[in-house]
Design a protein that fits this description.
This protein is an all-alpha fold and 299 residues long. It has one domain. Helix content is 68%, strand content 0%. Helix 3 packs antiparallel against helix 4 and helix 5 crosses helix 6. It is globular and about 50 Å long.
Length: 299
């Protein structure tokens, strides 16, 4: 497949992370105006980490294209190595403060899906992208999460693994294997807001959509920090913001800023929801890629 498509897929993956990072306000999450973010990670660190993933997404998109004839599960096995290299690149870029594993999993699967679909000369519809990406992740929970119960006392668990063992929350793995359901809901929210709320700009639509995600998402990052109590508390806060109008009303905007202060005071962050927003933005931008000289829809 023409390298221009692979390049554009990777560029859009990185851009989706940067666009999400640049949104303000964003309760409990890194923004350009909140450099004293959680765990000492600031906006510049996040941008450097996102940029370090460009080669990772090139490799994953290429893997998707080059494994067209393989079964999805076999293709996924091949993707593991470039994904781990991506984690190492982020750790190096952030000096060990970030890994962006959730972004690498969801955006990496979507990159591979886009590569496979374009190699088959298929249109990158939202459904085709999520179905193909989900097919790569088939059996992922059974392979990676189910065995954890038997490994208690023999290994150090990651935050996402501990949350699964404690509460059964599947995190980004579940989002991928179960068809990107929350990501597709986020896309619908973004599209609806653009069609019906013309007064909102891109940043404001993203903030409103993020609140919608937080209200429903089983965010493993929140559960890792404060257990199921913290998860439910933050979901309720988001639901109250939606009821007050969110970005569509002065009261809602004030509530979003108050939620941000509250989350930061508790050291809590819905970073899993930010990953889903990045996935939604990525899918929407991928849908603009076409089999043309530039890789984009040429008018």
């Amino acid at each position: 497949m023409n390298e221009i498509y692979i390049f554009n897929i990777a560029k859009l993956a990185v851009k989706s992370i940067i666009n999400t990072a640049s949104i303000y306000p964003k309760p409990g999450l890194i923004t350009p105006l909140d450099n004293n973010a959680l765990d000492g990670v600031d906006y510049n660190c996040l941008i450097d980490s996102a940029m370090s993933l460009f080669q990772c997404f090139i490799n994953l998109a290429s893997a998707g294209a080059d494994t067209e004839s393989l079964k999805p599960m076999d293709a996924f096995t091949i993707m593991k190595s470039p994904a781990q290299i991506g984690v190492n690149d982020v750790l190096r870029a952030s000096r060990g403060k970030l890994s962006l594993k959730g972004h690498i999993l969801l955006l990496g699967l979507l990159s591979a899906a886009a590569g496979r679909l374009l190699s088959q000369k298929r249109i990158l519809t939202h459904g085709a992208l999520t179905l193909t990406a989900s097919s790569f992740a088939s059996g992922l929970i059974e392979r990676e999460l189910w065995p954890l119960e038997d490994q208690r006392g023999t290994k150090i668990f990651s935050d996402s693994e501990r949350v699964y063992l404690s509460y059964g929350i599947e995190g980004c793995r579940g989002e991928a294997e179960h068809g990107f359901k929350m990501t597709l809901k986020a896309i619908e929210s973004l599209r609806r807001l653009k069609a019906t709320q013309g007064q909102l700009n891109f940043r404001e639509r993203c903030t409103q959509t993020l609140i919608d995600i937080i209200a429903e998402n089983q965010d493993s990052s929140l559960a890792a920090h404060g257990g199921i109590t913290e998860l439910i508390r933050v979901q309720d806060e988001a639901k109250n913001i939606i009821e007050s109008g969110g970005m569509l009303s002065p009261e809602g905007v004030e509530a979003i800023f108050n939620m941000d202060k509250s989350l930061r005071s508790r050291g809590s962050s819905p970073s899993g929801s930010a990953v889903i927003l990045s996935g939604a933005l990525f899918i929407m931008s991928l849908a603009e890629l076409k089999l043309t000289r530039s890789g984009y829809n040429e008018k």
